[in-house]
Amino acid sequence: MQQKPLSDITVLDLTRVLAGPFCTMVLKDLGAEVIKLERPETGDDARQFGPFKDGKSIYFISLNRGKKSIVLNLKDPQDKAKLLHIIPEVDVLVENFKPGTMSRLGLGYEKMKQINPTLIYASISGFGQTGPDSEKAAYDIIVQARSGIMSITGEPEGSPVRVGVSIGDINAAIFATIGIITALYSREKTGQGQHVDVAMLDSMIAILENAIARCSIDNKPPGPLGTRHPSVTPFEAFRAQDDWVIIAVGNDHIWEQFCKAMNQESLARDPRFISNNMRTENHAELKAIIEKLLADKTAKETLELLEAWGIPCTSINTIDKLFSDLQLNARNMIINISDPEL
Question: How far is residue 322 from each of residues 60, 73, 89, 233, measured CA to CA in Å?
């Protein structure tokens, strides 16, 4: 078996719940030895999050599988001394306490750097280590709301909608992982560690892509559009005879192919729909036309027809269908893991 790229890296994981544990989970999957520290008695808050099997949190297990475990009370001088004793032996420390907490415990980056100058010290927090709100508490829904992503999610005129996964936590975890790996690469050249500071809010702003671009040009905030793309058309969910289908016409060539597939070649020459920009401007008219064309076709018939013409399209899977998805299984994306007690 090929050696994993981080197999010589040891990570001390002082994180809990989701953003930090997801980051260290990725590092573990890349080969790192991860030592997870938890507080006595209660441990990681995620141990109390469902679903449960035989009294154990599957949520917690899914994020912390394969990590080693130690229990220390960081407010206890003897336990803190034990932690400080292993700092010279680790390559990476990851924590997701509120900024200032680790320094008050005598475990901040400046102290750790004195003990181990090569240490990569990664901090994941809601708002980052600097700024007027740095010490405020934050959860995923807080940064989803504050970042503006909730204002462009959902149906027009609908109530606020949270993205269906904890994207604020997971996005920050991925940025933190990138920062840690980059810092490890830098250390190879300089021999020095560094402090990686990742904010959930910053990470959400970084993925707003065309929403910020459109607002800066139009001078007005974009709103929710349901499944529709704001600047590519047709690119959304359409109702067929019995179910919804997703159709994504990403350029003019695909649009021409789509019109041929639907036996509507004149539609491709219609001045209202001749270019992507015109299709977007006349979105409502085009959607009505497409749904009328799909009204006598089942979702299965629609997808088979469009796929034969190379049109990007799909059904909308429910989660249970993922377990039997041939592509996901071919890519080894759904795997079984063993737990000694379960």
Answer: 21, 41, 41, 28
Q: In the chain, where does the domain assigned CATH 3.40.50.10540 lie?
A: 10-206
Architecture of the domain defined by 235-330: 2-Layer Sandwich (3.30)
Q: Where in the chain is the domain with CATH 3.30.1540.10?
A: 235-330
Q: Is residue 341 pLDDT above 90, yes or no?
A: no
The residues annotated with a catalytic role in the active site are 229
Domain 10-206: which topology? Rossmann fold (3.40.50)
The mean predicted confidence, pLDDT, of the chain is: 96
Take residue 110 and report the two structure tokens written for it.
């400046």
Dist. CA 287–CA 303, nearest whole Å: 17
Reported pTM:
0.93
Kindly report, residue by residue over 225-238, the tens digit of the pLDDT. Answer: 999 999 999 999 99
Name 258's Cβ contacts closer than 8 Å, sequence gap at least 6. Answer: 234, 247, 249, 306, 309, 311
